[in-house]
From TrEMBL:
The keyword DNA-binding applies. Keywords: DNA-binding. The keyword DNA-binding applies. GO terms for molecular function: DNA binding; DNA-binding transcription factor activity. PROSITE patterns: HTH_CROC1. Signal peptide: none annotated. GO terms for cellular component: cytosol. It comes from Candidatus Fimisoma avicola. Residues 5-59 form the HTH cro/C1-type domain. This is Helix-turn-helix domain-containing protein. It holds the Pfam family Cupin_2.
Length: 193
């Protein structure tokens, strides 16, 4: 986690003091978190994520540098090698990554990110409110039904439906139905705007 916070902060050209001003957390405490000397609370991680304009989940990703600095021409992820991420806020959300890279990782300006999200009944992708990020997103419902909340609009989606969401639109996905929903989500490379 420490590498992700430091990486995201430095990628934005932000000092610890500047991040502290945006979060209300002292630079000294942020430094301890980045150096793995303190474990941040979920509330603290949410503040840091908002200040860095990223989803909180990026702090749990492992990023891997390409060997010898070479740029791979393809990204093969075998089914049994997928990264699994369990929701931080509840046990009703699982992400299974079908790409090895992240739009927020070392090649974030160049790569797409894809994952299969499984949301159990009563679950959602963000329990607090719809959020935006600096990537456009394509969402395809593989099975089940869900509610797509885009700012003030609710859209019911079912198997076979898809939606493309622009990067500036705050959104989240909610399963208020009886069965698990499974969706494929693909994000465009991170936009530095």
């Amino acid at each position: 986690m420490k590498t992700s916070i430091r990486y995201m902060r430095k990628k934005r050209g932000m000092t610890l003091k500047e991040l502290g001003a945006k979060t209300g957390i002292t630079a000294a405490h942020l430094s301890l978190i980045e150096r793995d000397k303190r474990d941040p609370s979920i509330q603290t991680l949410n503040k840091i994520a908002r200040a860095l304009e990223v989803d909180t989940e990026v702090f749990w990703w492992n990023t891997v540098e390409a060997p010898s600095g070479k740029k791979a021409e393809y990204d093969l992820v075998r089914k049994n090698e997928r990264r699994i991420y369990h929701g931080v806020y509840n046990d009703k959300l699982i992400y299974e990554y079908v790409t090895s890279s992240s739009v927020y990782g070392p090649q974030g300006g160049e790569t797409m990110e894809g994952y299969i999200a499984k949301v159990s009944p009563g679950g959602n992708t963000n329990p607090f409110a719809p959020t935006s990020h600096k990537s456009e997103e394509l969402v395809y419902v593989i099975r089940g039904k869900m509610l797509c909340e885009i700012e003030d609009t609710d859209i019911e989606m079912e198997q076979g439906d898809s939606i493309t969401i622009k990067s500036n639109m705050a959104h989240r996905f909610i399963n208020n139905f009886e069965d698990e929903v499974e969706v494929l989500m693909i994000r465009s490379p991170y936009k530095n705007v």
